[in-house]
Amino acid sequence: MFSKEFREKIRVGKYSRWAVDLTEEQLEALFWAVGEYGYRADQPLAILRQYATKGEAYARYMAGLRGIADFAYGQPPMNLESFLKRLGTAIREARAEEELQTPPVRSLELRDGFFIVGLEGGMEIRFPVKGNPKLAAATDEQLKQIKVSEYGLHWPSLNCGISFQDLMIGDFGQQPESPAGGGGVS
User: Fold this and answer.
1) Distance in Å from the first CA to the final CA of the chain
2) Is 28 strand, coil or helix?
3) Cα-Cα-Cα-Cα dihedral of 68, 70, 76, 82, to 10°?
4) In Å, what is the CA distance from 173 to each residue of 78, 110, 125, 169, 181?
5) Contact call for residues 132 and 185 (beta carbons, < 8 A)
6) What is the pLDDT along the chain (186 residues), one digit of tens a residue?
7) What share of the chain is helix, strand, coil (3-state, %, to 5)?
8) Residue closest to 116 by CA, chosen among 79, 66, 167
9) Residues 6+ apart with CB under 8 A from 184
10) Quick count: other Cβ atoms within 10 Å of Cβ 96?
């Protein structure tokens, strides 16, 4: 059904490999599924906008779902290039929004076993060094080698970081990292 050239093109695509060997019957079922979702996408998209976590992953997810809905409605006619352009715009917007939400640090202090992060506007975030396994095992010299970025606090010599987003919800890496990753510590 597909030409050899087209099959090779989708075989190397990160998100299209699965479609290489689709039969006509499977493709027809896929079109129906996309159409069913696409024609009814406005309601789940509205719910997802309210409850989904924001950020780049959310932007990618929403761009994909919106693309499916637009295909089903036939507006605008889309090809891979136009979809990737739309996806890139969504990712850039999400990154810009995240940067705007990053609290600017006014001061940073280590006192009495606590890091105290002073933010513009007067808010302070305090967290205990002993509450983070990597920081608790560090020397005073290692703790002083802290870097502040637009995303959070980083201790390069300890391979440890805590995002501002995590700090704002009280996650300062209390749990050791699991083998699969995760926890508030990177």
Assistant:
1) 47
2) helix
3) -30
4) 43, 17, 14, 11, 12
5) yes
6) 778 898 888 888 888 888 888 888 988 888 888 888 777 777 777 776 666 556 777 788 788 888 888 877 777 667 888 888 888 888 888 877 766 565 678 899 999 999 999 887 788 889 999 989 999 999 999 999 998 887 789 998 898 988 887 887 888 887 654 343 344 433
7) 50, 15, 35
8) 167
9) 132, 162, 163, 166, 171, 172, 173, 174, 175
10) 10
**Residue 66: alpha-carbon gap to chain centroid:** 18
Closest to 64 measured CA to CA, from 19, 20, 34 = 34
pTM over 0.85: no
**Which single residue is written with the structure tokens 């975030």?**
125
Cα–Cα distance measured from residue 28 to residue 144, given in angstroms and rounded to the nearest whole number: 61
Q: What's the length of the chain? A: 186
Distance CA 105, CA 162 (A): 14
